[in-house]
Write a structure and sequence with these properties.
- The structure is a single chain.
- By secondary structure, the protein is of the alpha+beta class.
- It folds into four domains: 50 residues, no CATH class; 42 residues, no CATH class; 47 residues; 53 residues, no CATH class.
- It is 39% helix and 15% strand.
- It has eleven helices and eight strands.
- The strands form four sheets. The chain has a two-stranded antiparallel ribbon with strand order 1-2.
- It is rod-shaped, with a radius of gyration of 39 Å.
- The protein binds zinc ion (4 copies).
- The site of one zinc ion has 4 residues, from strand 5 and helix 7.
Length: 242
C-alpha cells in the first residue's frame, strides 16, 4: 500500500502527542497549545507563552490619560494611591494638569494677596489684546489699567488694555479719562450716546437707523464716525477745547 503524501507520519505524530501532552487553551490569547501533564498536575500550563503569562499576572486596569486620552496600564497600587482619581500617561501630562488646576492662584505657595494679578486676570479673559483708545495691538507695550484707579479692585469689569502712551495720558489728563469712559460706556452698552436738549442720551444701536431719531434736533448720527467725534460734536464743553 502506498501513500501519496506523508499523511501516516502526521497521523502517528498526532496520536503520539495527544496521548502524552494534552491540548490546552491559552487563557489570554485563546490559542491551543500542548501542555506537559506534570504542568497541569502542578496547576501550571495556563498560558501559551511568556508574554501571555506576564499579561495574565497583571491585576491593574487600563485607563485613559486625562489630558491626551492615551490608553495606559495602571497597577493596583497606582489606582488606589491616586487622590484625584485622574490618571495620566506620564509625568508631562500630569504636570500640565497640576499646573493648570492644583498649584495655581490661591493654592500656589507663592500666592500673596491677589493684589498684583490684574494682568493675569485680563490675559485669561477673552478681552482682545488691543489698546482701548488707539487700537494699538503690540503686546509689548500694553498695560492693564484700572478704570476706577483702585489697584485692589481686580475684577474683570474694572480692567482694560491700554498702551503705554494712552495709559500715561489717561492718568495725567482729565479729558482723556472722560474720553475713555465715554468709549467704554458705548462699547459695553452697545449703544450710541448723543447730546439731546442739553442732556446726554443713550440711544440703542438699532434706533440709529430708525428715521424718527434723525430729525430730532437735526442730528446726523454717522456710524462711521468714531465715538470721540460724536462726543466733541455734541458736547459743547469739549468741542471748544478741540
Ligand atoms: Zn497565549
Ligand atoms: Zn497623556
Ligand atoms: Zn493706545
Ligand atoms: Zn492705569
Amino acid at each position: 500500500m502506498e501513500y501519496c503524501t506523508n499523511q501516516p507520519v502526521a497521523v502517528y505524530l498526532k496520536f503520539y502527542y495527544t496521548g502524552n501532552m494534552p491540548i490546552v487553551k491559552c487563557k489570554i490569547c485563546k490559542k491551543d497549545f500542548y501542555a506537559k501533564p506534570n504542568w497541569l498536575r502542578r496547576g501550571l500550563g495556563k498560558y501559551c507563552s511568556l508574554s501571555c503569562s506576564q499579561e495574565g499576572r497583571r491585576k491593574g486596569r487600563h485607563v485613559k490619560c486625562h489630558i491626551c486620552g492615551k490608553i495606559t496600564y495602571k497597577t493596583p497600587k497606582a489606582l488606589k494611591g491616586s487622590k484625584s482619581k485622574k490618571y495620566f500617561c506620564g509625568k508631562s501630562c500630569q504636570t500640565i494638569w497640576r499646573n493648570s488646576i492644583i498649584f495655581v492662584g490661591k493654592n500656589h505657595s507663592n500666592w500673596k494677596s491677589g493684589e498684583f494679578t490684574y494682568k493675569n486676570v485680563l490675559t485669561k479673559s477673552s478681552t482682545p489684546k488691543v489698546c482701548m483708545l488707539c487700537k494699538e495691538n503690540d503686546k509689548r507695550i500694553l498695560v492693564a489699567h484700572h478704570i476706577d484707579k483702585n489697584r485692589r479692585n481686580n475684577r474683570l469689569k474694572n480692567l482694560i488694555w491700554l498702551c503705554f502712551n494712552c495709559h500715561f495720558l489717561v492718568h495725567q489728563y482729565r479729558r482723556e479719562e472722560d474720553r475713555l469712559k465715554f468709549n467704554l460706556k458705548k462699547a459695553r452698552s452697545g449703544a450710541a450716546i448723543v447730546q439731546l436738549e442739553g442732556h446726554r442720551v443713550v440711544v440703542p444701536r438699532n434706533w440709529v437707523q430708525f428715521p424718527m431719531v434723525a430729525p430730532l434736533r437735526g442730528l446726523n448720527i454717522n456710524k462711521s464716525r468714531s465715538s470721540y467725534d460724536l462726543y466733541s460734536l455734541y458736547s459743547p464743553k469739549f468741542a471748544k477745547q478741540t
